Amino acid sequence: EVQLVESGGGLVQVGGSLRLSCAASGFRFDGHDMHWVRQAPGKGLEWVSFIRWSGDKAYYAESMKGRFTIYRDNAKNTLYLQMNSLKPEDTDVYYCNAAGSWGQGTQVTVSS
Description:
With 112 residues, the chain is an all-beta fold.
């Protein structure tokens, strides 16, 4: 059974930082590309970032470029999202996605 468990969210002030983690199990982690996606209450999903299975390619949504960094540790079956210079509009539930599955999400709240 594929499992993705996000953690690391919380309440942070504008300009602060958080590091999200996504612990994966139940599939070959180093064989899958992965995504971070976010969703605000009452809104649709917004793609945040992608990383190739090997970790050597990463892409970001325009508003996240230069502030967010996606990376992975294939030895630990864990995906990360380092978020810096956080803004109120980054307030969302963040999900990781891989192998056709989603985690339960982790809430990020940025206060001004």
